[in-house]
Amino acid sequence: MGVEGREKQKLLEAGAQALSGQLGQTVQRLRKAYNLSLSELSQQSGVAKSIISQIERNETNPTLATIWRLAQALDVSIERVLQTAEDEPFLEKTSRTDTPILLSDDGKCRLEIIGWIKTVDWLQCYELSADAGGVLASEAHQRGSVECLSVRAGVLEVEVAGVKESVKAGETLRYRCDRPHIIRNSGALPAQANMVCILKAAVME
Amino acid sequence: MGVEGREKQKLLEAGAQALSGQLGQTVQRLRKAYNLSLSELSQQSGVAKSIISQIERNETNPTLATIWRLAQALDVSIERVLQTAEDEPFLEKTSRTDTPILLSDDGKCRLEIIGWIKTVDWLQCYELSADAGGVLASEAHQRGSVECLSVRAGVLEVEVAGVKESVKAGETLRYRCDRPHIIRNSGALPAQANMVCILKAAVME
DNA sequence: CAATTTTGTTTGTTATAACGAACTTGTCGC
DNA sequence: GCGACAAGTTCGTTATAACAAACAAAATTG
């Protein structure tokens, strides 16, 4: 291994070290958010508290099983426990003019994005308005994603993988949206619905 | 540790085992997709080929650094290399009569529970209708929880920890709901809103 | 304030992850 | 078929992850 190889080795070590540092911070933040002591988290996860302490201080390179156990005990997916962190404001208001709008290709369906930017990677919320004849076709979302459509007015038809279902006002339909899916207003009247897209595979747990 | 504890231990072990099995399959699939031998991937990742072989056969519980190195060499994010396999498609419909309704103490606010029972521990969705003068007072939810209120009609006032904010139609307010909070319709007209309560402390990330 | 309890860190031991070398199996060319 | 080489697996050794217990510091209680 020459100079280049040693350089690469250092990068590999530094990258892994940074990731395990991030993991430690996340574990500690979540633990404190749940108001758990090391002992309590240890009991819930089956990981020794001395190891949790080491992880939080980035003094160890944990195994996959250990990470998984902690993620389970902290009620987050393993992807989430490995992700980066941020803080949030106390009250956050989005005005009408700041609310992003999406239109379907045929211009007959309107989506107001009411979901929170902070959770957009795993939770997306919309208000859907569909004129008669409107069609909203979507590509597959993340693997394992599930969409919830609660109709408030009119009738909407949902088609996923060739399976169709009609949803009337007052009804809610849930379906896998990790493949192409289509929402149609094939009724004579406009339709209104709330749509929540839960993107994470963790939802299947 | 009693029977229950041993049961949990088995689940923890099985869960971690399943995940490392999945990892092994993904590593092998990607390696072959790139037409790499174990030796070549070993050189690129700095992980011994015998270890890569073990991982692919799910015969070891790899450390985070090892997983990270492999993910780097295979040009995928660590989340991707840990992703779970696909499950069966489904459509699940909840009718109007099956949609649970909650009323506020004063009887002037009505909550339809449109959220999915499966995610109720960390994600709750409601349709809120509030008559003029209606008050919906709630106790604190889980630490770190955030509520999103998107008003569709009328005006609602939200009070959290003494801080008040008015939300008009077309606006969305987000606030910490891990302390007592009150939603009031102090206007002259009925109000309508969609309410999403994200219970997980993970939202803090 | 002192005593007790809780919380996080340190320490010594055990189990195992990761390593490199040797071995086995599979493939290819002659 | 044989020899050479590539690819994957096994094996013995080393380093370290994970454990439980002991310890120190911080927090709580009366």
Gist of the model:
Two copies of one chain form a homodimer. With 205 residues, chain A is an alpha+beta fold. Chain A contains five helices and eleven strands, in the order αααααβββββββββββ.
What does it look like?
Two copies of one chain form a homodimer. Chain A is α+β, with helices and mostly antiparallel strands and 205 residues long. Chain A has two domains: 3-81, lambda repressor-like DNA-binding domains (434 Repressor (Amino-terminal Domain)), CATH 1.10.260.40; 101-204, Jelly Rolls, CATH 2.60.120.10. Chain A is 30% helix and 30% strand. Chain A is built from five helices and eleven strands, in the order H-H-H-H-H-E-E-E-E-E-E-E-E-E-E-E. A six-stranded antiparallel beta sheet of chain A has the order 2-3-4-11-6-9, with no helix packed on it. In chain A, helix 1 packs across helix 3 and helix 2 packs across helix 3 (49-56). Chains A and B meet through helix 1, helix 4, helix 5, strand 1 and strand 4 of A and helix 1, helix 4, strand 1, strand 4 and strand 6 of B. Strand 9 of chain A pairs antiparallel with strand 1 (91-94) of chain B, so a sheet runs across the interface. Chain A binds a DNA duplex (30 and 30 nucleotides) through helix 3.
